[in-house]
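Pipeline run #58 for the internal structure catalog. This entry was flagged by the ingest filter as a single-chain record with no existing model, so it goes straight to prediction. Upstream metadata was stripped on purpose; only the residue string is passed forward. Reviewer on rotation: M.T. Logging verbosity set to normal.
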Amino acid sequence: MYTFDYTEIEILWALRVTTSRPGAIAALEQTLSQTKDPLMVEAVQGLLPKLRRMTDKEFATADKQRPGWE
């Protein structure tokens, strides 16, 4: 089962892309082209390859729950 670290989960939730892998990839690519924040760039550059390796089914079943949320 794929998992995301805390930073990756926060990015996916901030972009509201927790249900669609293609949507998440598109949103992250757009964010990458628009942001100048080096920490965000680093996080997105790490997350994109992970999403590209996943299948849609793996993304759908991956744990994207925010810690402390029910």
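catalog note: The radius of gyration is 11 Å.
catalog note: The chain is about 65% helix and 0% strand.
status: ready for reviewer M.T.
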